[in-house]
# Entry
Amino acid sequence: QVHLVETGGGLAQPGGSLRLSCSASGFTFRISQMAWYRQAPGKARELVATVMSDGRTSYADSVKGRFTISRDNARNTVYLQMNSLKSEDTAVYYCSRPPSNWGQGTEVTVSS
# Structure
């Protein structure tokens, strides 16, 4: 059974940083594409970043240059380093093994 558990959310000030982690189990992590999505209040869920099994990454334009997705295959964990946070980054962030596996989400609030 696929299991994805996100940690690391919380409150950050504008311009600050947070690091999200997603611990994965129940599938062969090292060969799997992984992704981070987010859903802000009243908005649709959107793709934030993707990391392929070979380490290639891609980002939404809104986070490019500020967020970094990475993976540690030895720990079955995917990370999202978020720097230069803005109020519009406030959302629930979800770890995903596309297309149909999701974590429970971790809330990120950016506010002074």
Q: What stands out?
A: The chain has a mean pLDDT of 97. The two ends are 40 Å apart (CA to CA).
